[in-house]
Amino acid sequence: MSEPRTTETTDSTERTTGATGTKPLLRIEDLWKSYGNEDVLCGVDLTVDRGDVEVLVGPSGSGKSTMLRCINRLTEIDSGSIYLEDMEVTAPETDPNEVRQQIGMVFQDINLFAHLTARKNITLGLRKVRNLSEAEARQRADTELERVGLADQADSYPAQLSGGQKQRVGIARALAMDPEVMLFDEPTSALDPELSNEVLEVMHELVAEGMTMVVVTHEMRFARNGASSMSFLDGGEVIERGPPEDLFENPSHERTARFFESIRHD
Predict the structure, then answer these.
(1) Which of 22, 37, 70, 114 lies in the 20 to 30 Å Cα band around 121?
(2) Which superfamily is assigned to 12-264 in CATH?
(3) Residue 27: how many CB atoms within 10 A of its CB?
(4) DSSP 129
(5) pLDDT at position 1
(6) Where are the chain's structural domains?
(7) Residue 21's pLDDT is what?
(8) 3-state secondary structure (DSSP) of residue 176
(9) Between the CA of residue 240 and those of 24, 47, 157, 215, 219, what are the distances in Å?
(10) What is the dihedral of CA 152, 155, 158, 160, to 10 degrees?
(11) Confidence of residue 23 (pLDDT cuts 50, 70, 90)
(12) How many other CB atoms are found less than 10 A from the CB of residue 60?
């Protein structure tokens, strides 16, 4: 495996305590993941404080989605560690289902159950994982559907919903588990601009509410306006990290500059 070339300069104390001097909510240390001979993540370090929004950008194949899947234990790492406060997410004894209750994820592919209504797509996990009663699960599902602007679609099936509405149901399903962190993996990539705006509006509302989020997206308006911090990945490494305005307007790494220049010309 190649040596990391990240330009982010953080010592071990900052990685442990975070930029604010308090323990980060989410901490990734020296994360490696390979498929065969291909290194997908190469010694990634990252900390996210409670209430912050970390946006991951970079070319296709740079490791962004793999990082999210490692955080949520959908993909097992090769080496390194991931912590959610004091819980070591990647420890062999840690139950992945416990991780996924506390780290919600919204996928590029919406993955709703076609035979269940919007409400029942949400109550299923609440009853099986959270062990809520039917009445409690229904109440929480209706609350989250209202939160994403779909109170009137609770009894609709996925085939009756637009792509944007289905993605908002997916967000409501993740929120219903009351997670500590929300992961978003290209949630608007399959949607046209109008439907994308529906989803982005909900995400901006979550930012305003103080939800801790890690977001992979090509939506640069969200990255500029919604992110607390941005990380630019290439070749499985964090090449540069900082406030959005710095990466957009004054990147310190030539590879970062070329990426944002290419976006401006698209």
Answers:
(1) 70
(2) P-loop containing nucleotide triphosphate hydrolases (3.40.50.300)
(3) 22
(4) T
(5) 43
(6) 12-264
(7) 58
(8) helix
(9) 19, 14, 43, 16, 18
(10) -70
(11) confident
(12) 7
Give the bridge partners for 87, in sequence order: 84
* Amino acid identity, position 28: I
Amino acid, single-letter form, for residue 238: V
Cα→Cα distances 6→2, 15, 24, 48, Å: 12, 14, 20, 17
DSSP 8-state code for residue 152: G
Q: How many CB atoms lie within 10 A of CB 71?
A: 25
Checking if the pLDDT of 7 tops 70, the result is no
Partner residues linked to 92 by β-bridges: none
What are the structure tokens assigned to 135, written together? 């009445």
Q: How is residue 117 annotated by DSSP? A: -
Residue 232, Ramachandran bin (φ over 0: left; ψ between -120 and 50: alpha; else beta): beta
What pTM did the predictor assign?
0.89
Lowest mean per-residue pLDDT among 4-18, 76-90, 185-199: 4-18
pLDDT band at 3 (very low <50, low <70, confident <90, very high): very low
| 233-265 residue pLDDT tens | 999 999 999 999 999 999 999 999 999 988 765
> Both tokens of residue 102?
């506390």
Q: How far apart are CA 26 and CA 89, in angstroms?
A: 10
Torsions phi, psi for 249 (to 5 deg): -105, -30
